[in-house]
Specification:
Number of helices of chain B: 9
Shape of chain A: globular
Strand order of the largest sheet of chain B: 2-1-3-4-6-5-8-7
Strand content of chain B: 15-25%
CATH superfamily of the largest domain in chain A: Pyruvate-ferredoxin oxidoreductase, PFOR, domain III
Radius of gyration of chain A: 26 Å
CATH class of the largest domain in chain A: Alpha Beta
Distance between the termini of chain A: 54 Å
CATH architecture of the largest domain in chain A: 3-Layer(aba) Sandwich
Strand content of chain A: 15-25%
Number of helices of chain A: 20
Radius of gyration of chain B: 20 Å
CATH topology of chain B: Rossmann fold
Helix content of chain B: 25-40%
Number of strands of chain A: 27
Structural class of chain A: alpha/beta
Helix content of chain A: 25-40%
Largest interface: A-B, 70 and 58 residues
Shape of chain B: globular
Oligomer: heterodimer
Strand order of the largest sheet of chain A: 7-6-5-2-4-3-16-9
CATH superfamily of chain B: Thiamin diphosphate (ThDP)-binding fold, Pyr/PP domains
Largest sheet of chain B: 8 strands, mixed
Largest sheet of chain A: 8 strands, mixed
């Protein structure tokens, strides 16, 4: 009997409430004191085709998902067809035989328990419609797992209370019917159970929710965006909370306007942010450069999805790294940070505002669909020690004591104190043209050169030798895996697993892409016995960046560009293969 | 405090002698003075082109940003600090070509901005290509066989898009333009002023004299600016003359009125040092 280790998937046509069902299941588990990871997969359509939500449950922290399913809850036949081979022997298929035309005999032959329940008649008996289908399924799943029904009822109440009393009653009714039918008819033939565990209260959240919370904590006062998967949930989160936190949130007419409004607000002195995906970021590029040239603090989130062009709008990829590092014409300082999990998304989003204001330059947070939209369990983040730094600013008194205020005055650090528009004595012009210390257009050769140097040296004082990277495991490990962004979680999961198996393997995560932690990364890689880079793109962009910044050429890459995140078992097998081969030194250029 | 030269700068404009921008610059300074404003209370956001350089030659906070994008920057600045008097300036190539989308949405968004478009029918800074208000058949380096597009009607578009202050000025009419700008700043919400402007270098056939022979003031003809259909009729009146003045004044809630977040002090000056997100985290448990 297995307790509290589960790989569960609910799947069906878009419009059947697959994500809602998956999230309710995940929250039930989270509230039972268990760790959860949830991966949502959906096509870019509103009705039909196929959506799935996979939930991994454990008493330990979960880093990702695996191919094998203990339970497949199939709300239609396409789901059975697509995922039948993923059900492990001894696993279960929950479906409605009365409605299904799928041939499931072969599954029985593989030792898979067929949990057929009359979903449709249960829904009719409860007096509801197809909106109840996901609840029936979750009720049945929990019955099969012999989970405490009272806990289910409590979470359903939270989820459906806002839909009115009738809807709640119907949901509770169908959940109970399905729960009892599965528990009484099938549970004794199934080998996984879920039980409550005493644990700290945990949040169930996505990377986008964590990032948006970090921005709120940082005092973001203005947010403009334009809907684009997978960044849209940042816009809706900010909009939902705008009044309680006194933030103005604008759905602009396009991404250019969103970036322009955010920049205008930052110029006026408010902490300001915009978020988009690669396509929208392409449109924002010119304003990102304008932020660099006018030395205006701006935070931009780029949550990647597979390109080129529209690509796979609702899937995941890490293919905009080099684009973001060089986006917009000309040379200007930019800070590019890639959080690896929701907690880093929270902390680095907060820090981004400090960096943007301290260095008066754009900060880009690189996310991707997997990090933005997957769900994880975390204890509430500890906010001790999170301090606000508004950078060098001059108030009316300080400006009044100066003979002359020059917004872009040359300083050793390159950082020139800012005046906030509206302050007497601070009048200046910001311009995207090259300019003199006052901000006026100037094409003089020496001023141009000095201004370039002034801007570019601003981030020299940003030391990322500690915060820019993380090493999990031993420097002397037989194999060092290198990765960044959302692949951090599956790599950590695999490294954990392989270490438990006795393997010698470490993981180097790169967090700051610019400035880049050149020396420590070169040191780690110089000592490494064998290196492999794992990325979610087709060309090994991090490997290229490492080569450019450290001279270390990494030949061995594991690249996945199918639009899906690495599965833990898939990645573990590939890493194991490398561990079995002899160590190989990296080549240095 | 009431230094009449307070909006003047030491630097001298680099516009061509005889350029209509001088008239617009002077009218704007005159309007700001007449409103008893001080330089630090004003922000001017501009695009790129000859018109876009105006913030350099008016002593006020300025953001000389991107081609066609004066309006988004102005809206962001205004919402971040709603106490700032916010002026956006564009050219006809800048604001009506590259920035056309922002123009339409600024009309319906109704943030309290005064938008001046320096409209001379050509691109000046890139040396004389036809603009969206240039005449059909206009010959320029990009249209050597004559432009095949028809000019569009900025005022009609603004009215159709929901703007509540729609006016046309003439760069040669310092008094009239200054008054229009001041009225635009006083108007709550988005105010749009298309300014007919001479380009002596690239559109010489429409000279100062050419305009002067054609412009007249709507007020003199008893136009009622509260009548939207009548305003449209005046835009499309085709008698060879060019009406100036206030075409349409309506009323609509300003964007700011719909934002209780702005009822306190401006966002830009609020203290952000100790924001508690415990409640946000609790929502996710």
């Amino acid at each position: 009997m297995i307790t509290n280790e589960l790989s569960f998937m609910v799947g069906g046509a878009a419009g059947l409430g697959i994500k809602t069902g998956g999230l309710i299941f995940a929250r039930l588990c989270s509230r039972a004191g268990l760790h959860v990871f949830g991966n949502v997969e959906y096509p870019s359509i509103i009705r039909g085709d196929h959506n799935s939500y996979q939930v991994m449950v454990s008493e330990k922290r979960v880093f990702g998902h695996v191919r094998a399913l203990d339970i497949l809850l199939a709300l239609d036949d396409l789901c059975i067809e697509l995922h039948r081979d993923e059900i492990r022997p001894g696993g279960a298929l929950i479906y409605d035989a009365a409605k299904s035309k799928a041939d499931v005999k072969e599954l029985e032959g593989r030792g898979i328990l067929l949990v057929s329940l009359p979903f449709q008649s249960m829904i009719q008996e409860a007096g509801g419609g197809q909106r109840l289908l996901n609840t029936v399924g979750i009720g049945a799943t929990m019955g099969l797992l012999r989970f405490d029904f009272d806990a289910i009822a409590a979470t359903l109440k939270d989820a459906f209370a806002r839909h009115g009393e009738d809807a709640l009653k119907q949901n509770l009714d169908v959940a109970r019917r399905a729960y009892e039918a599965a528990a009484e008819g099938f549970a004794d033939r199934f080998d996984v159970t879920l039980e409550k565990r005493a644990a700290p209260r945990r949040m169930l959240l996505t990377g986008n929710e964590a990032l948006a919370m970090g921005a709120v904590k940082a005092g973001v006062k203005f947010y403009a965006g334009y809907p684009m998967t997978p960044s849209s949930s940042i816009l809706s989160y900010m909009a939902k909370h705008e009044r309680e936190f006194g933030v103005v949130v604008k759905h602009a007419e396009d991404e250019i306007s969103a970036a322009g409004m955010a920049l205008g607000a930052a110029f006026a002195g408010a902490r300001s942010m915009t978020a988009t995906s690669g396509g929208g970021f392409s449109l924002m590029c010119e304003f990102v450069g304008a932020a660099g040239m006018t030395e205006t603090p701006l935070v931009v989130v780029e949550s990647q999805r597979p390109g080129p062009s529209t690509g796979l709008p609702t899937r995941t990829e890490q293919s905009d790294l080099k684009f973001v590092l060089s986006a917009s014409q000309g040379e200007f300082p930019r800070i590019v940070i890639a959080p690896g999990d929701p907690e880093e998304s929270f902390r680095l989003a907060f820090e981004s505002f400090n960096l943007a204001e301290r260095y008066q330059t754009p900060v880009i947070l690189l996310m991707d669909k997997h990090l933005s939209e997957s769900t994880w369990t975390y204890e509430p983040f500890d906010c001790q020690g999170m301090r606000i730094d508004r950078g060098q600013r001059l108030d009316e008194a300080a400006l009044g004591s100066m003979d002359e205020y020059k917004r872009y005055v040359f300083t050793p650090s390159g950082i020139s104190p800012m005046a906030r528009p509206g302050t007497p004595g601070g009048v200046f012009v910001a311009t995207g043209d090259e300019h003199d210390e006052h901000g006026h257009i100037c094409e003089d050769e020496s001023t141009r050169s000095r201004m370039m140097e002034k801007r570019l040296r601003k981030i020299d004082s940003l030391d990322v030798s500690e915060c820019g990277w993380r090493l999990y495991g031993d420097r002397e490990a037989a194999l060092t895996v290198v990765g960044w962004g959302s692949t951090t979680a599956p790599i950590r999961g695999v490294v954990d697993l392989l270490e438990r198996e006795g393997a010698s393997v470490s993981f180097l995560q790169i967090i700051y892409m610019n400035p880049f932690p050149e020396k420590p990364v070169a040191d780690v890689l110089g000592q490494a016995r064998r290196i492999v880079v794992v990325e979610n793109n087709a060309t090994g962009q991090l490997a290229d960046v490492i080569r450019e910044r450290t001279g270390v050429r990494i030949e061995d890459t594991l690249l996945k560009y199918s639009g899906r995140q690495w599965l833990l078992d898939e990645l573990a097998d590939l890493i194991r293969e490398r561990l079995q081969e002899a160590p190989r030194k990296p080549h240095s250029a | 405090m009431d230094n009449p030269a307070r909006f003047n700068t030491e630097a001298k404009p680099t516009w061509c002698p005889g350029c209509g921008n001088f008239g617009i610059q002077n009218a704007l300074k005159k309007a700001l003075r007449s409103l008893d404003l001080q330089p630090h209370e004003v922000v001017i956001s501009s695009g790129i082109g000859c018109s876009g350089k105006i913030p350099h030659w008016i002593n006020a906070y300025g953001f000389h940003g991107l081609h066609g994008r004066a309006l988004p920057v102005a809206a962001g600045a205004k919402l971040a600090n709603h106490k700032l008097v916010t002026i956006a300036e564009g050219g006809d190539g800048d604001g009506y070509s590259e920035g056309m989308g922002h123009f339409v949405h600024a009309c319906r968004r109704n943030v309290d901005i005064t938008y001046l478009v320096h409209n001379n029918g050509v691109y000046g800074l890139t040396t004389g290509q036809v603009s969206p208000t240039g005449d059909r058949g206009f010959v320029s380096s990009t249209t050597p066989h004559g432009a095949l597009e028809s000019p569009f009607h900025p005022l009609a578009l603004a009215i159709a898009a929901g703007a509540t202050f729609v006016a046309r000025g003439f760069s040669g009419d310092l008094e009239g333009l200054g008054e229009l700008i001041a009225a635009g700043v006083r108007h709550p919400g988005f105010s749009f002023i298309d300014v007919l402007q001479v380009c002596v270098s690239f559109n010489p056939s429409k000279s100062f004299k050419w305009y002067q022979e054609r412009v007249y003031n709507l007020e003199d003809e008893g136009h009622d600016p509260t009548d939207r259909m009548k305003a449209l009729e005046m835009v499309f009146r085709n008698d060879g003359r060019l009406p100036t003045g206030l075409f349409y004044r309506g009323s609509a809630p300003t964007h700011e009125e719909g934002l209780p977040q702005l009822s306190a002090e401006p966002l830009a000056v609020q203290d952000v040092t100790n924001i508690d997100v415990t409640q946000l985290m609790e929502e996710l448990v």
